[in-house]
Every structure is written in structure tokens, then in C-alpha cells.
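Duplicate of #3305? Posting structure anyway:
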């Protein structure tokens, strides 16, 4: 085993010590040449976000991505609630990404850069990254499906200095084959009516979620209820893969 293979294995093992986390390595060039980068130029509909993240220039001499998938079970909706510019799930993934970067530099002297969530701020298309990191496949609901958790995962990536051996996409996992696709029936906006995911319809729904925040059950320091956005997850929950 080469030094880089061993390093990749150690890094993945370190990431998977966190409860509900899976990790894999992807080649950054493969991700940048993936289907999402090709499709986005032609994609209709734009998504205005108020995510509080800074735009970051990329670490030099970095050819690999550590891709993280965090289990996001149905009975823990709070992870997805958008409040004061971010979600609890994203905050958790950012913290863990920073801890992994610190571990990598401390133990191996290799730099890592946790990437922002949004591509416009310096992030990458995370479903493509997860496929190339061997974490799952993209299903008929247009979401990354993990073997055990199905689409109920949230994704994140760190840019890693140097060139680590990448994992391989799955070849023996085709959960959507022969599936009656309840995910597509479940969409309240009928975003799959034309046989593929329709971004403008989905955006319409999420804009409506944003316009109608729900009570989180918590109060701020002045005793006022904290309202959060509870994003639609119907295409996730209807998926029979994982739980
Ligand atoms: C912008 C955005 C949105 C926008 C626009 C969505 C869109 N798909 O265009 C809106 C707000 C509408 C949205 C909705 C949702 N989102 Co969103 N979104 C993103 C974001 C920031 C970028 C996605 C994007 O613009 N893609 C580009 C467009 C053009 O491509 P696409 O529609 O995604 O389809 C591409 C892939 O599916 C890929 N693909 C398809 N088949 C294959 C096969 C292979 C081999 C490969 C390599 C790739 C590949 O190619 C397609 C293009 O041809 C990502 C985070 C990130 N940085 O990646 C999260 C992300 C994709 N969203 C996520 C989620 C969970 C959701 C929602 C369920 C809402 C929610 N509760 O958060 C819905 C689900 C919609 C759906 N069924 O796709 C998760 C997905 C997790 C997962 N299991 O896959 C992500 C990764 C964020 C996260 N927190 O982890 N989202």
C-alpha cells in the first residue's frame, strides 16, 4: 500500500468516527467535469439564497476532495431548519469539516479546506462529488441515495492538498430499477411530471416554504418564538431506499 493510499484510508476512518457519517475521496477534475457543471448552464430557474457564507478562493495544489455524507433521519427535522442564515445540519457539517482539516494538518502536515455549501461561494456540486467518491448513486428523485440511508443524507466536501487515490462509483447498486417511483408521485408541485426533475417547479415550492416559516418551539432572549423554514422533503421521505 502506498503512503497516499494509507493516508486516504486513515482520513476516511477519522471522518467515519463521527456518528452518522460516511466519507469518500473524489478527484476534483472529475467532479468539475461532471453532469451538474454541464447541466447548470442550461438550467432554468434561479434560486436566491440568504445563506451566510463567505466566498473563498481555493487552496492551491489540491486535487482531491474528501466528501462527507451525514445521515439526516426523518425524525430529526431540526437539522434542516433554516434559521439566522444557515441550518443546524450545515453548521454541524461545517464544524466537523473544520475538525477533520485540523486533524489532517496536525497528524500528516497536509492542508485541507472545508468548502462552502454554495457553488457560487466556492463550493462544488455535491451529488456528483458524492457519486465519484463512491458514496451512492443519483436516484429518480434527483437525489444522492446512500445504501443504508437512501436520500436522507446531507453532503459537504473538503479540498485536500495533493493527490489522494479516489474511490470508485458504485456499479452494483441500482435501487431505482423496477421501482414504481413513489418519490415522483409525492412531489406537491408535480416537478417530475415531464419525466425528469423540473427545477422551476421545485423552486416554487421552496420559495413558498420560505414565505411561511414555522414555530420551532424555541424562544429567543426576549421570549419571542423563533420561526424557522422547514423545507419540503417529500421526494426524500417517499423513497423506499434506506431510512
Ligand atoms: C441550488 C440547490 C437547490 C435548488 C435547485 C435544485 C436543483 N437541483 O437544481 C433548490 C432550492 C430548488 C433545491 C431543492 C432541493 N434540495 Co438542494 N441543493 C442545491 C445545491 C446548492 C446545488 C444544486 C444544483 O444547483 N445542481 C445543479 C443542477 C443543474 O443539477 P441537478 O438538478 O442537481 O441535477 C444534477 C445531478 O442530479 C447530477 N446527476 C444526475 N445523475 C447523475 C449520475 C452521475 C453518475 C453523476 C456523477 C451525476 C448525476 O446531474 C444532474 C444534472 O444533469 C446543492 C448543494 C451543492 N453544493 O451541490 C443542494 C442539494 C443538492 N440539495 C439538497 C436537498 C436535500 C434538497 C431538497 C430535498 C430540499 C431540502 N429539504 O433541502 C430539494 C430536492 C430537490 C430534488 N429532488 O432535486 C441536498 C441533496 C442531498 C441528497 N441526498 O442528494 C444538497 C446536496 C444539499 C445538502 N444539504 O446536502 N436545491
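Output from current build:
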Amino acid at each position: 500500500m502506498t503512503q497516499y493510499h494509507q493516508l486516504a484510508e486513515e482520513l476516511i476512518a477519522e471522518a467515519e468516527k463521527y456518528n452518522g457519517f460516511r466519507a469518500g475521496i473524489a478527484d476534483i477534475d472529475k467532479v468539475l467535469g461532471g453532469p451538474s457543471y454541464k447541466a447548470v448552464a442550461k438550467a432554468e430557474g434561479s434560486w436566491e439564497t440568504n445563506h451566510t457564507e463567505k466566498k473563498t478562493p481555493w487552496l492551491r495544489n489540491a486535487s482531491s476532495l474528501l466528501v462527507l455524507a451525514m445521515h439526516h433521519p426523518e425524525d430529526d427535522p431540526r437539522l434542516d431548519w433554516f434559521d439566522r442564515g444557515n441550518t443546524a445540519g450545515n453548521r454541524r457539517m461545517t464544524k466537523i469539516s473544520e475538525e477533520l482539516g485540523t486533524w489532517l494538518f496536525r497528524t500528516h502536515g497536509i492542508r485541507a479546506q472545508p468548502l462552502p455549501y454554495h457553488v457560487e461561494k466556492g463550493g462544488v456540486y455535491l451529488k456528483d462529488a458524492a457519486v465519484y467518491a463512491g458514496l451512492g448513486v443519483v436516484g429518480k428523485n434527483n437525489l444522492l441515495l446512500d445504501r443504508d440511508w437512501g436520500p436522507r443524507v446531507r453532503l459537504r466536501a473538503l479540498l485536500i492538498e495533493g493527490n489522494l487515490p479516489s474511490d470508485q462509483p458504485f456499479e452494483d447498486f441500482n435501487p431505482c430499477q423496477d421501482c414504481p417511483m413513489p418519490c415522483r408521485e409525492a412531489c406537491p408541485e408535480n416537478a417530475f411530471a415531464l419525466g425528469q426533475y423540473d427545477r422551476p417547479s421545485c423552486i416554487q415550492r421552496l420559495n413558498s416554504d420560505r414565505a411561511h416559516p414555522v414555530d420551532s418551539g424555541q424562544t429567543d432572549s426576549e421570549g419571542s418564538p423563533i420561526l424557522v423554514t422547514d423545507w419540503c422533503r417529500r421526494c426524500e421521505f417517499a423513497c423506499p431506499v434506506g431510512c
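Confirmed duplicate; merging threads. The longest helix spans residues 88-108. The radius of gyration is 18 Å.
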